[in-house]
Amino acid sequence: MSEKTTYGFTTTILHNDRQKPIEHGSLHKPIHTSVAFGYTDARQLASVFQGKEPGFRYGRQGNPTISALEDKITKMEDGVATLCFATGMGAIGAVFQGLLRAGDHVVSSSFLFGNTNSLWQTVAGQGVGVDFVDATDVANVAAALKPETRLVFVETIANPRTQVADLARIGQLCKERGILYVVDNTMTTPYLFRPKSVGAGLVINALTKSIGGHGNALGGSLTDTGMYDWTAFPNIAANYRRAAPAQWGMTQLRAKGLRDFGASLAPEAAHHIAVGAETLALRMERASSNALALATLLESDARVAAVHYPGLPSHPQHGIASELFRSYGSLFSFELKDGIDCFDYLNRLKIGIPASNLGDTRTLVIPVAHTIFFEMGAERRASMGIAESLIRVSVGIEDQADLLADFQGALDAA
Ligand SMILES: *Cc1c(COP(=O)(O)O)cnc(C)c1O
Description:
alpha/beta; Aspartate Aminotransferase, domain 1; 5-stranded mixed beta sheet; binds pyridoxal-5'-phosphate
């Protein structure tokens, strides 16, 4: 498999590690637990530290097991480089801490994962202006831009209400204005969608979710797609401008976001995620098809008030989703009609597990307003389109008939 050969998504992931020699011919990249990396020549240690030759220094900044996973994700996203973090939030935090300064301005989608929303509040308290807009229409993003806008931040399919950002048009706008476009690709994963195709400069993946896929390891990543011209970014410090401009962003993010803040991925977690990633395509196809069947069933039921899933023709962004995504993903949310208590309903499910992860092999359900979106309060929930009865369903890879019977049976018992 040479660099130029184009294999399919899964073939590429399965065989990527072997592109570099692996110890003893291991088919899996081994788990390296050593924190330090020793050199026989002290001068070589110095030149690794000075970035004059490649090599590992200290586990917080990287390790061979992590590096193999980073290569795999770079391939998945068709990017130029990837940094891994302890969690998805670690990756998002690195963008904020590593790239923004007081006085900067950010335009963010208002439809966001709850903890990302909370992190934006923190950043706003540190002197960065943040404007939240309805990013399903590029006009709202354009209207919010200022001369000091440093980045635009969106999720592909928003967690949990499934609004789809106006991805391509926002990409075009950012390109025209020379603004960094940051896309959280967690809900689609690079199997369903590559943000690079719409001009994203940085792509975030919460590896905890579908990429790892089995709910047994936390992790996050940041991929530079090569689409952004870092010479246009004013916040790159002089000492990170020494290499070729294409490397400026990742050099600063590795130093400021990873080295200084220390949210480093553990090698054992990297191994779990790399093994999980081998079946990403298979799991996404199965889970997406289960999600479409389940969302369709619930939408046709008189006891259900609303179903939010980009795969349904009734979804406001169904057209954009059909155009851009390979399928519609494994997550949907729905609202029960008044008179049916969402807790009673969830307690009747036998397969769907009340739990707060997503992208797991198992189907997980959660009453959003009472759990993950509780802290922000009713007013902000309303502005994000979160109904008090909203149930988020992360659909797993169970047998479809069993899932349909479970969700239907819990309604019948209501
Ligand atoms: C879960 C999630 C994150 C955060 O990932 P963690 O690994 O849990 O920190 C970020 N963005 C989205 C869209 C998510 O669903």
